[in-house]
Write a structure and sequence with these properties.
By secondary structure, the protein is an alpha/beta fold. The chain has helices at about 135, 160-170, 195-210, 225-245, 255-270, 285-290, 320-330, 340, 370-395, 405-420, 430-440, 455-460; strands at about 5, 10-15, 15-20, 30-35, 40-50, 50-55, 70-75, 80, 90, 110, 120-125, 130, 140-145, 150, 170, 185-195, 215-220, 250-255, 295-300, 305-310, 330-335, 355. The strands form five sheets. The chain has an eight-stranded mixed β-sheet with strand order 9-17-16-18-20-14-21-22, sandwiched between helices. The longest helix has 25 residues, at about 370-395. A hairpin with a 5-residue loop joins β4 (about 30-35) and β5 (about 40-50). It contains twelve helices and 22 strands. The protein has three domains: about 5-75, Elongation Factor Tu (Ef-tu), domain 3 (Beta Barrel), CATH 2.40.30.20; about 80-360, Rossmann fold; about 370-460, no CATH class.
């Protein structure tokens, strides 16, 4: 059934065209635009008034004329074809296969804009996901159903870290072993990345053997801006299908959210909207929330969606609107530190600005280990004191420090080199991570370990790793 069709455009402004509208045209409705040669272009309605509609074309408007262009409103939103054939496939930002294997065999399609999850239908996230990275598992634990972004910067190894998380992330059952009979899949979405970055991820997934368990959406840097806005919605639609209809546990990794927000600013400027902070549209917060809030666990479904959005902070400014607003919506953040990176530490996870707000509910005897909370708290407290002593030493000189302060400096060096630092192929269990934490705490006097229960000191201190 064909939709309503109009001939002629009122105005053409880059990839946005203005045309007349009918009463039943809706926001985000799909549109087919035909030029004089009957070549079809797809777009969607991005703005409406009583008499006209603004249409963002997926591509450019080259070859369109105001008089001879035909516009057909398709009376449906943009949809993604979903099915079990999604796994192991590579799509572009519009959900079209780009791996040469053609469309997946399925008659089911879903609206990429999703539906808001009723807060009453949500269940609280409490289950532990092991990434194999000590800085995350030990001190900023990822919980199933959580949204935990990684705040990075230009030149920092967030791509390597994202690939490592995809390779290593696994479900840990209550007895501390992986598995438990539950399938765990990855949905990976890259927005505005260069060809070499896209090739890095694909090669990495293929060589490590995880590609068959990954759904990849790639929107390259030379793709239209609108494609970057649609790519994460396609990825999250695929995740919702796998999680809530197929009862799988899904980890969604999205990089780079900064490119997504830049595309939003570009489209907003084309549409002539009044800019807000640093030129971004005033609805940046609600738009980001519409993506982040599609993570979680819901009643009557054993599946879950966990999000790790990755964003590069412009000029390493954590108060920039993108990380600032992301921090309000999400449940913590993993912050990458340039100073640690320049000293050769990988992954360069900053100890103090990083935070997982749901960590307290996903650790302990039933999920990780009884001493996890105490070890993490003591490591945070001791490392905070290291930072203070380093600042003091930069003023008065290290030789003027007390013996206790020098012990903390020794602890700080051992913590960064022995606990934080690990290779990209070092997949640490949570038990090994906690044992390493005890090992570095062993450099501090027992009376300084005020945040650790005495029974754990006797049981775990100085044990063999």
């Amino acid at each position: 059934m064909r939709g309503i069709e109009f001939r002629g455009l009122l105005r053409i402004e880059g990839p946005v065209v203005i045309t007349k509208r009918s009463r039943n045209v809706g926001f985000n409705e799909m549109v087919a635009v035909y030029d004089r040669g009957n070549v079809k272009r797809l777009g969607r309605v991005v703005d409406l008034s009583e008499k006209w509609a603004a249409i963002q074309i997926f591509g450019n408007s080259t070859g369109l004329s105001a008089d001879e262009t035909r516009v057909e409103f398709l009376d449906k939103p943009m949809e993604l074809r979903v099915g079990m054939g999604l796994l192991g496939r590579v799509f572009n930002g519009l959900g079209e296969p780009v791996d040469g294997y053609g469309s997946i065999f399925s008659s089911k399609t879903l609206d990429i804009n999703g539906l808001p999850i009723n807060p009453y239908a949500r269940t609280y996230p409490r289950d532990f996901i092991q990434t194999g990275i000590s800085a995350i598992d030990g001190m900023n634990t990822l919980i199933r159903g959580q949204k935990l972004p990684i705040f990075s910067g230009n030149g920092l190894p967030h791509n390597r870290l994202a690939a490592q998380i995809v390779r290593q992330a696994k479900i840990i059952s209550a007895d501390g072993n992986s598995g438990g009979g539950e399938q765990f899949v990855i949905v990976f979405c890259a927005m505005g990345v260069k060809n070499d970055v896209a090739r890095f991820f694909l090669d990495n997934f293929e060589q490590s053997g995880v590609l068959s368990n990954v759904v990849v959406f790639l929107s390259l840097a030379d793709s239209p801006s609108l494609e970057r806005l649609i790519a994460p919605r396609c990825a999250l639609t695929a995740a919702e299908y796998l999680a809530y209809e197929k009862n799988m546990h899904v980890l969604v990794v999205m990089t780079d959210m900064t490119n997504y927000c830049e595309a939003m600013r570009e489209v907003s400027s084309i549409r002539g909207e009044v800019p807000s902070r640093k030129g971004y549209p005033g609805y940046l917060y609600s738009d980001l929330a519409s993506l982040y809030e599609r993570a979680g666990k819901i009643k009557n479904s054993s599946g879950s969606i966990t999000q790790i959005p990755i964003l590069s902070m412009p000029n390493d400014d954590i108060s920039h609107p993108i990380p600032d607003l992301s921090g309000y919506i999400t449940e913590g953040q993993i912050v990458l530190d340039r100073e640690l990176f320049q000293r050769g530490i990988y992954p360069p996870v900053a100890g103090l600005p990083s935070l997982s707000r749901l960590m307290k509910d996903g650790i302990g005897p039933s999920m990780t280990r009884e001493d996890h909370k105490d070890v993490a708290s003591q490591l945070f407290a001791a490392y905070a004191k290291v930072k203070q002593i380093r600042n003091l030493a930069s003023i008065i000189g290290e030789e003027e420090l007390s013996a206790a302060d020098k012990q903390y400096l020794k602890f700080g060096e051992k913590f960064e080199q022995g606990f934080l630092t690990q290779s990209e192929h070092d997949n640490r269990s949570i038990g090994r991570t906690l044992d390493l934490g005890w090992k570095v705490l062993g450099d501090l006097p027992r009376e300084e370990l005020l945040r650790v229960n005495e029974k754990f000191l006797d049981k775990y201190m100085n044990r063999e790793i």
